[in-house]
Amino acid sequence: MCGIVGVVSNAPVNQLIYDALLLLQHRGQDAAGIVTQQGGRFFMHKARGMVRDVFRTRNMRALPGASGLGQVRYPTAGQATSDQEAQPFYTSAPFGIVLVHNGNLTNAAALRRALAGSDHRHTNTDSDSEVLLGVLAHELERATRGGTLGPEEAFAAVAAVHRRVRGSYAVIAHIAGRGMLVFRDPYGIRPLSIGHGPNGAVMAASESVALEGTGYQAERSVAPGEAIFMTLEGEIHARQCAQHSQLSPCIFEYVYLARPDSVLDGISVYQARLNLGQTLAQQLITTMAPDDIDAVIPIPESSRPSANELARLLGRPYREGFVKNRYVGRTFIMPGQVVRQRSVRQKLNVIGSEFAGRRVLLVDDSIVRGTTSREIVQMARDAGARRVYLASAAPPVRYPNVYGIDMPTREELVANGRSVEQVRALIGADALIYQDTDAMKRAVGSLNPAITAFEASCFDGIYITGDIGEDDIGRLQKERPVAAAADDGDEN
Question: Which of 67, 134, 267, 474 is found 20 to 30 A from 318 (Cα to Cα)?
Answer without folding.
Answer: 267
